[in-house]
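Severity: low
Component: inverse-folding endpoint
Summary: output formatting inconsistent between runs
Steps to reproduce: submit the following structure tokens with default settings.
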């Protein structure tokens, strides 16, 4: 895949283009992650070529990360569901590297190694590690968008070098790059602008829902200009104001969902319809949550999720 024009240098022990060193893949580095079983996803390849086990692991991580939005996966055909789970597990682990503690060079070196191994997997080399095994299988079934993968790596490198966006424009640019990478990787290079905008809104919702966990770890996706201080804890009034401002910025992005559902391939429409219905409800509850957002982020109950699945499967939005 094409590399970004300005690729930061890797660490001195692992030259660019060299295979990953054995000790560089330590799963322990991911132990603080809020996403379960990341250590298994980032562990060194161990010649385990069990596709079913790799599929189950990717599904587990994807489901846990999506939370109330996870039922969208059930509305995809099985082949597309497995592909989406593999892509999501890949992206989640990539950005977990980008947000680890430590010096920039270490994070960038890990991202470089991740990219090197992905290129090998997509080039036909069988690698006994869950994500790369699955992505290699999916590449043989239908090649991934090079532009999409490049956007994800560019976004990860940006996150590794700049921890927080400086202002709302920088935050929107960062979110749009990740959204474009995910949409192109999942759907292909013909994905519409409305689909990318809607995906950016979904990423914004997920960031607000995990804000409490991020702040507890000393991280924050909200712009520095709106929330300058987050340690030891952000001022309550400033935090509430920043969350309200972010919610207002997400509303027009989520409104693009209705158009996006009509513009995605038919196989994605029912899942898209669920995401439209679920995300608008979640945003409304984020706005209502106030200070409790950090302690008890809103979620959709089981019966509510089931009703939305049924509406998405048979409703007018899914039929376009």
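Observed output (run 2 of 3):
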């Amino acid at each position: 895949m094409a590399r970004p024009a300005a690729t930061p240098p890797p660490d001195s022990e692992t030259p660019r283009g060299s295979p990953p060193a054995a000790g560089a893949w330590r799963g322990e580095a991911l132990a603080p992650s809020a996403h379960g079983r990341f250590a298994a996803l980032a562990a060194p390849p161990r010649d385990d070529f069990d596709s079913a086990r790799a599929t189950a692991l990717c599904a587990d991580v994807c489901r846990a990360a999506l939370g109330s939005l996870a039922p969208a996966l059930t509305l995809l055909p099985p082949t597309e569901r497995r592909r989406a789970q593999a892509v999501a597990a890949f992206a989640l682990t990539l950005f977990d590297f980008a947000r680890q503690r430590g010096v920039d060079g270490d994070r960038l070196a890990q991202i470089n190694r991740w990219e090197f191994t992905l290129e090998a997997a997509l080039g036909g080399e069988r690698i006994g590690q869950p994500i790369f095994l699955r992505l290699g299988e999916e590449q043989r079934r239908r090649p991934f968008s090079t532009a999409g993968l490049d956007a994800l790596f560019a976004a990860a490198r940006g996150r590794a070098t700049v921890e927080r966006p400086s202002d709302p424009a920088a935050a929107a640019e960062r979110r749009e790059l990740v959204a474009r990478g995910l949409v192109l990787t999942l759907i292909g290079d013909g994905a519409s602008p409305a689909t990318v905008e809607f995906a950016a809104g979904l990423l914004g919702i997920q960031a607000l829902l995990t804000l409490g966990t991020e702040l507890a770890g000393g991280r924050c996706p909200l712009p520095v200009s709106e929330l300058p201080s987050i340690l030891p804890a952000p001022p309550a009034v400033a935090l509430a104001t920043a969350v309200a401002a972010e919610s207002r910025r997400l509303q027009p992005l989520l409104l693009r969902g209705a158009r996006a559902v009509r513009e995605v391939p038919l196989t994605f429409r029912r899942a898209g319809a669920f995401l439209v219905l679920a995300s608008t409800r979640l945003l409304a509850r984020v706005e209502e949550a106030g200070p409790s957002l950090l302690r008890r982020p809103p979620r959709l109950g089981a019966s509510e999720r089931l009703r939305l699945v049924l509406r998405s499967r048979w409703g007018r939005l899914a039929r376009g």
